[in-house]
Amino acid sequence: MADANQKFVTVPHAGPAKAAASERVRDFDEIYASFRVAEGTSQSSRCAQCGVPFCQSGCPLQNNIPDWLRLASEGRIEEAWRLSEATSAMPEICGRICPQDRLCEGACTLEQAGWETVTIGSVEKWLGDQAFDNGWISPLRPLTELGRSIGIIGAGPAGLAAADRLRSAGYAVTIYDRHDRAGGLLTYGIPGFKLEKHVVARRVDRLIEGGVKFRLNTDIGKDIAFDDLRGAHDAVLVATGVYQARRLSAPGCGSNGVVAALDYLIASNRKGFGDAVAAYDDGPLNAESKRVVVIGGGDTAMDCVRTAVRQGATSVTCVYRRDRDNMPGSARETTNAEEEGVRFEWLAAPKAVLGGSDGVTGLRAARMALSAPTLDGRWTVEEAPGGEFDLPADLIIEALGFEPENLPVIFDADDLAVTDWKTLRVAAHGFATTLPGVFAAGDIVRGASLVVWAVRQGQDAAAEIDQWLRNQDSVAA
Ligand SMILES: Cc1cc2nc3c(=O)[nH]c(=O)nc-3n(C[C@H](O)[C@H](O)[C@H](O)COP(=O)(O)OP(=O)(O)OC[C@H]3O[C@@H](n4cnc5c(N)ncnc54)[C@H](O)[C@@H]3O)c2cc1C
Ligand code: SF4
Fold first, then answer.
1. CATH number of the domain at 7-133, please?
2. What are 305-331's pLDDT values in tens digits?
3. Do domains 7-133 and 149-243+404-476 have the same CATH topology?
């Protein structure tokens, strides 16, 4: 049989169909379609099957990418899916929202050699969608019940991935979350045009059907004391994410009309679910007919500008203090925002919020200049003299990043050690916190990061918890 691979010379790189900007801004649906079967197999066949797969090293989950691309290119789609789900608890979600240009696809040998990367993320999404459509998703059915229970605080990707692995191993798993829906930022942060909510819900449903218990609307530290939770389970995983928003410090920043990015995105996502959201219906968290300025250059800022476009803002401007090459957000999402009509003020930093008691009227910004590269390859910036300018605005959204909440205080647990960045301190090369039987994973360990890293840490923390409990059993025996 002729090799179905290494077709990169004859098969050009092609992504899945993408909705035109003028069409897609009318709703919150995902903008990329899933591949059709012929497209998925043909794009998979471009893989060079490198002896040393750099794509795999570029993927935080170390997915067996060349192997599932080979199987897909040969039309063995279900087998390709089985391989992709072996290393990831949610391949179809990572395939949708990983910044592949910085991870697997950025490391792809073809990309490095000027042939354009294999569309790894889109193939991964397609395999997952095929699996759900064709009933290939295996139910969560532990071979045995171990009679031990794990409490997980946080139903974001780290908590869900850990629950998947722990329940499969036979543990009774309860996930506690202060929100009314599971999914963490997959549900209430990331907008539907990147990740439709039914894609998250079907993953949660699989866990529920497999016996994982969800206790939603339950704030640990408030509704249930952390110590009581520890007493109720054999081990606890803290996967609470990072939610302390960095706020603007400039004259006028507390004015009506200046809002935090996550408040804005949660309101929009809630509207998408059909919830009544007073602060949206009354106006403060609704961009309709407003001139909107978003401050920041990360994924959150990109999600805010594109949400504002869809809500019917009259203009949307993103203000970021570095330039396009030095922004932390995904280049793909910035391009999507530009196509949708967002204007970017690169090298600009907020100086003051303009307006009065009736609300904001604009943002005064200073022109910045790149000065010197830092160790992480980004550039520091300094104010360029005489470069102040005003941007008109009725709504200013602060998307300046997140820090961890003060968990030792919230949990009333002085012995729960944190790092200088207020993330939870865990053992080197592991996930054990300074409290026996308490582990941590996801953003609360890494700081604001990526879904794929949360999944990786959730899975690895589950393996460590399993080992820890087994060691305890053998000591007790
Ligand atoms: C707007 C936005 C867009 C993003 N876009 C992308 C993207 O495109 N691609 C990407 O890879 N990453 C993206 N990220 C980052 C990604 O969402 C996070 O890295 C990831 O969700 C972290 O997962 P987690 O499970 O650690 O935490 P989270 O997803 O934050 O989940 C934590 C959960 O813990 C719950 N919780 C917290 N404290 C308590 C408590 N005391 N009691 C009970 N429950 C509690 C919270 O309600 C939440 O549900 C984005 C982030 C934001 C904010
Ligand atoms: S999980 Fe993310 S980085 Fe890994 S192969 Fe999938 S899209 Fe690429």
1. 1.10.1060.10
2. 999 999 999 999 999 999 998 888 888
3. no
Could you tell me the distance, in angstroms and rounded to a whole number, from the CA of residue 417 to the centre of ligand 1? 21
Tokens at residue 469, please?
């409990």
Domain extents for the chain?
7-133, 149-243+404-476, 248-399
Q: What's the pLDDT tens digit per position in 14-56?
A: 999 999 999 999 999 999 999 999 999 999 999 999 989 999 9
| CATH 3.50.50.60, domain 248-399, yes or no | yes
Q: Distance from the CA of 238 to the center of ligand 1, in angstroms?
A: 13
Find out whether the beta carbon of 104 lies less than 6 Å from any atom of ligand 2: yes
Rounded to the nearest whole angstrom, what is the distance from the C-alpha of residue 98 to the centroid of ligand 2?
6
- Other CB atoms within a 10 A radius of the CB of residue 91 amount to 26
Instruction: Decide whether any atom of ligand 2 lies within 6 Å of the 122 Cβ.
Output: no
CATH architecture type of domain 149-243+404-476 = 3-Layer(bba) Sandwich (3.50)
Q: Which ligand is located closest to the Cα atom of residue 300?
A: 1
Cα distance between residue 191 and residue 186, in whole Å: 8
The residue nearest atom 21 of ligand 1, judged by CA position, is 185
Dist. CA 121 → ligand 2 center (Å): 6
Question: Residues enclosing ligand 1, CB less than 6 A?
Answer: 97-98, 153-159, 176-179, 184-185, 189-190, 194, 219-221, 239-241, 265, 299-300, 303, 410, 442-443, 449-452, 454
Q: Is the pLDDT of residue 237 over 60?
A: yes
453 neighbors 469 (Cβ within 8 angstroms): no
Q: Which of 25-29, 182-186, 227-231, 375-379 has the lowest mean pLDDT?
A: 375-379
Nearest ligand to the C-alpha atom of residue 90 = 2
